[in-house]
Amino acid sequence: MTTNGGFQPVFCTIVPPHVLDRLARNEDPTLSGPARRSLEHDAYQRTHRRLTTVIGAPAVAAPAGAVADQPHRTIYDAGHQQDLPGTKVREEGTEPGADATVNRAYTGLGATFDLYLKAYGRNSIDGEGLPLDASVHFGTDYDNAFWNGEQMVFGDGDNEIFLDFTIPVDVIGHELTHGVTQHTANLTYFGQPGALNESISDVFGSLIKQYALGQSAAEADWLIGAGLLAPRVTGTALRSMKAPGTAYDDDVLGKDPQPATMEDYVRTGRDNGGVHINSGIPNHAFYLVATAIGGNAWERAGQIWYDVLTGGELKQDAAFADFATLTVRAARERYGAGDELQAVQKAWEQVGVRTL
Fold this sequence. Notes:
The protein is an alpha+beta fold. The chain has 10 helices and 10 strands. The strands form 3 sheets. A 6-stranded mixed beta sheet has the order 1-5-6-4-2-3, covered by helices on one side. Strands 7-8 form a two-stranded antiparallel sheet. The protein has a two-stranded antiparallel sheet with strand order 9-10. A hairpin with a 3-residue loop joins strand 9 and strand 10. It is globular, with a radius of gyration of 19 Å. Residues 1-7 and 51-59 have low confidence and may be disordered.
């Protein structure tokens, strides 16, 4: 394991706070009520995460009898309460039950484990067989999903704006990848390093979906959270890596604020310095790299990004240019001066990020 600068897990949600803030101000209580409760839940969990960071979380090890290089999944039902983890409802090796949410969570954890193991030789989130725990049916109409530094948590959505958060497998992969980052580069969750943290989760969340579906870079939709938005919403997903800023344009949610290039970089103190907004720039760079190289994106393009994330040289406070420079170096070291290197250099140039 490479942990850069100390172990500092953060609280990360798939729905950005600026989206819930907008919903919370809506005049319709069927929209504002769930959003306000979700924000309250998030504030509580964020405080709990900070306290756990200070006092230390209990060490979690694989149970006796666990098979090496196999997932160890446990799904809990929070019963629409806020106490975690809830009641155990499914564990590794058991058959699917009647609750589709439980089954999707179980499958999504497995898909994430498979991508990291089979594509990159990584044994679970920490590289050492960390058990994968998840709680479903969290809170009442909870409009989010999150990684809290120890486990996954999924809300059911309000069925007005958001549906069940276990529906998109890339949401599961995104949140678990925050755990991978936590155990490797440990990027600071603010400003450009925070946007890189979010982007890396989007990148590997998308790769997990592509791997599970057997899609090439050309076949993938490059959407994050497709299937999550309710039918009344004018939009396709939470974010688009192919075309940042186009995922939704809705009278309730507003317009997707993500920029695709540094020309439109958003300077803000909200959302930890715009971590969910400016992540569109490195997201788009990865899309450009993957589609330029072609084939399966988790292979060469994904390998370059994984090499940088786990290589030990990516600093906690890395800016976009630092990350981009390391991807150029990683592409050259692994693949030489070929198509891969040219694709990486051109992509960062296209999004306006200078490499050294």
